[in-house]
């Protein structure tokens, strides 16, 4: 392992190299240097954000958005309500997918000596909807080996001195301390509101005459159409055609290999592949663009429910159980312009499954 003395970015010009902090760089691997908390206290439903710093040899092309056979970079959280102090470990009870953060943003990099240092934010909302103290339990870096990036992943556990490659410890790299990087998640409903001030005296006046207006019942409601940070409008008054139209793109299947999901062609639409799971808590993530999104899925007697999150914000719980097999669809509007990260989390009882046909986005 090569240790390099470097200055901080802010004082790069004025600081003497001999007084700069050391980094755990390596000529052979991509290395997790540090992790910091962006916001120490948030409320349920808001994003948990961590800033990571990662180093890589200058001649090795790497990005926090990369993927390999083990998937993409992610953070697995632990909450104080599942942490076992005696074992110094977390008991997930097969619910790990509800504690994962996968979204990456704010990527920047700087070149110092023979290495490139990447800084970026990893964020998301744990699907636990539970208040408490959260800290990173496991940080997964992919494409970590310069010689075999497509096959090597490093797993940084909070209670291990060194990361592992899935089989053995990588003794040349040290795990940075991150159990103390805690975020407090509070429940706004448990906060006792301050008493209302004494009301001002009401002065009665002659009311203005009220003019009643006849509304067109066929016109869609435009009230409550507020930004995604406040509310998403759920609407079925305009559902797109399968092959698209002047406003909507054609349906496309949700591609990719996701943990606890299988791609199955049975009961699919237009020969596309369905994403199917029988695991409660199974998570599937994709992107959409534009102000609206339509999701197509299957209904039936043994179908379960799912929750949908847009940019880490919980939107709605949808029940797909029906008396007979049927193809269903639902549209959400008011997402805002630009690119959106969509998370679907399965909520299934024993014997139930969830099947997603595909998605449709607005033309831009």
Question: Could you give a short description of this structure?
Answer:
By secondary structure, the chain is mostly beta strands. It has 2 domains: 4-187, no CATH class; 233-361, Galactose-binding domain-like (Jelly Rolls, Sandwich), CATH 2.60.120.260. Helix content is 0%, strand content 39%.
Please state the structural category.
mainly beta
Q: Compute the number of helices.
A: 0
* Distance between the amino and carboxyl termini: 49 Å
- Using the alpha-carbon principal axes, give the shape: globular
Estimated helix fraction: under 10%
Element-by-element helix/strand order: EEEEEEEEEEEEEEEEEEEEEEEEEE
Overall tally of domains: 2
User: Beta-strand level of the residues, as a percent range?
Assistant: 35-45%
List its traits.
single chain; 364 residues; mainly beta; Jelly Rolls; 2 domains; six-stranded mixed sheet; six-stranded antiparallel sheet; globular
